[in-house]
Amino acid sequence: MNGRTKTAIFANSKGGVGKSTVALLMSMGLATRHGDSKIELIDLDPQATSSDSLKRFANRRFSVLQDDAFFLGNGFPNNSKIISHIEQKGSFNHNNHYLIFDSPAGSEPARSAFFLSCDIIFVPTSVSDADIFATRNFLNSLQDLFSSEAGTNAAKLPSVVILPTMVDSREDFNEVRIELSSAAAYLGKPLYYSPLFRRAFRAEAEDKNVKDMLLHSSDYINWLTNLLIHSHAISPRPRKLFQL
Ligand SMILES: Nc1ncnc2c1ncn2[C@@H]1O[C@H](COP(=O)(O)OP(=O)(O)OP(=O)(O)O)[C@@H](O)[C@H]1O
Ligand SMILES: [Mg+2]
């Protein structure tokens, strides 16, 4: 699994749980920490929150892609187009290339076969009851998608990592751990609530807001980027929730 392009997707059927925010931390984190890496952030949200606001950071190593060809007329993902994009990038065989997908609310694993072509599926969730309930359903739908690939080598299935976001306290985090304890997934570190994230997608003078946010979340970003870089080292499917 080493020595080729790594692909991650941020997904949850629930809206407003931090998918775009953490996809931003991942992309900027890889770009700023690893000088020889190439990152493509692909915005699968027709509203294009990420791509519109992040285009200004594009350079030789960091690109932002929003392509209508990735959707079908009914708004669902065009799996064959997305899979061939992932495979084309994968064929570069560079271990410092990263594809980061940000996906919209409402995504349905049953309609998203391309999830199976990713190395890691990150599932951000806030700690509110409604979000945890929706996240549990989403995780079950992911397992259904994996089961539909029963013939596939389990080692080839993506790892699933739940990312608690907007966490207020250690108790908050523990609540997520207890509520999702039967999920066959990894549980990532908490991203604590901070007003700095609320301004993440604004274009402020000299990008002070983005710099402050990256500085503030530096430990979290180190952990997050290392997890993707070493994704081959985590085995794909814990039988129940496994805290990283
Ligand atoms: N750790 C945090 N602390 C405070 N606010 C946060 C945090 N993470 C995200 N937010 C805020 O929560 C809101 C939703 O975040 P974001 O847009 O990343 O979610 P999303 O899952 O991508 O939403 P959508 O489903 O609409 O695409 C944003 O206003 C964002 O700034
Ligand atoms: Mg979003």
Structural features, described:
This protein is of the alpha/beta class. It has a single domain, classed as P-loop containing nucleotide triphosphate hydrolases (Rossmann fold, 3-Layer(aba) Sandwich). It has 7 helices and 8 strands; from the N terminus they run βαβαβαββαβαβααβ. It has an 8-stranded parallel sheet with strand order 3-2-4-1-5-6-7-8, with helices on both faces. Helix 5 (170-179) links the parallel strand 6 and strand 7. Helix 1 (19-33) crosses helix 7. The longest helix has 19 residues, at 129-147. The protein is globular. The mean pLDDT is 91. The structure holds adenosine-5'-triphosphate (ATP) and magnesium ion. The site of adenosine-5'-triphosphate has 18 residues, from helix 1.
What are its keywords?
8-stranded parallel sheet; binds magnesium ion; 244 residues; binds adenosine-5'-triphosphate; Rossmann fold; globular; alpha/beta; 15% strand
Small molecules held by this entry:
adenosine-5'-triphosphate, magnesium ion
**What's the SSE pattern?**
EHEHEHEEHEHEHHE
Give the overall silhouette.
Answer: globular
Order of strands across the biggest sheet? 3-2-4-1-5-6-7-8
Helical segment tally?
7
**Class, according to the CATH hierarchy?**
Alpha Beta
Alpha-beta content class: alpha/beta
CATH topology: Rossmann fold
Mean pLDDT: 91
Which stretches are poorly predicted, pLDDT < 50 over at least 5 residues? none
Topology:
Blueprint: E1 6-10, H1 19-33, E2 38-43, H2 49-54, E3 62-65, H3 79-90, E4 97-102, E5 120-125, H4 129-147, E6 159-164, H5 170-179, E7 186-187, H6 208-216, H7 218-229, E8 242-243
Parallel strand pairs: 1-4, 1-5, 2-3, 2-4, 5-6, 6-7, 7-8
Helix pairs in contact: 1-7
Bound molecules: adenosine-5'-triphosphate (ATP) and magnesium ion.
